[in-house]
Amino acid sequence: MKSIQKDGWQWLLMLGAVGICMLLVVFAEDIFPWLRQEEDVTIPSQDNREVTMHTILSQDAIPAIDNPQFVSASQADSDYRDSELVIGVEINGDARAYSVPMLSNHEIVNDTVGGVPVAVTW
Questions:
Q1: What is the DSSP string of 25-68?
Q2: Which residue among 95, 101, 107, 115 is least packed, with the fewest CB closer than 10 Å?
Q3: 6 exposure class (CB count in 10 Å sphere: 0-12, 13-18, 19+)
Q4: Could you give the CA distance from residue 99 to residue 107 in angstroms, rounded to a whole number?
Q5: End-to-end CA distance of the chain
Q6: Which residues contact 64 (CB under 8 A, 6 or more apart)?
Q7: What is the largest CA-CA distance in the chain?
Q8: 34-54 pLDDT, tens digit each
Q9: What is the pTM of this model?
């Protein structure tokens, strides 16, 4: 009887952990919205075959960059390799370079270049 009382807190802790896990499983899609399963969409292609699109990630699963931070050209020369790919945008004399490796992680940057709102995607 003494060992049950001594180890009782461990059982209580384990029971609490199991309860939390059960709640996570039940409410997983509410807690982690990117886990929601989207339905497959079938669309006709240009040559009249049906193409089925499977959604792997839910909407907004990869966050966009909404407030991009830039470095000066001299800083970029020292920080980036000459071979690094960038997407360049120039509007009304305002020029920006968006790193392709960075875009590979975020896929979209919402920015304003030369007073014009732009969405840079990769």
A1: HHTHHHHSGGGPPPPPEEEE-TTS-EEEEPP-S-TTSS--BSS-
A2: 115
A3: exposed
A4: 11
A5: 65
A6: 106, 107, 108, 109, 110
A7: 82
A8: 555 556 666 676 777 777 766
A9: 0.51
Task: Provide the 3-class DSSP secondary structure of residue 18.
Answer: helix
> Quick one: which of 50, 57, 55 has its CA closest to 39?
55
Looking up tokens 């830039």 gives 70
10 Å Cβ neighbour count for 1? 5
Q: Give, for 21, the enclosing helix (H) or strand (E).
A: helix 2-26
d(CA 10, CA 64): 44
Provide the Cα torsion 28, 29, 35, 39; round to 10°: 140
Per-residue pLDDT tens for 3-29? 555 566 676 777 777 767 666 666 665
Find residue 98's DSSP bridge partners. 87
- Token pair in block for residue 85: 């790919």
> How many C-alpha atoms does 52 have within 13 Å on its Cβ side?
5
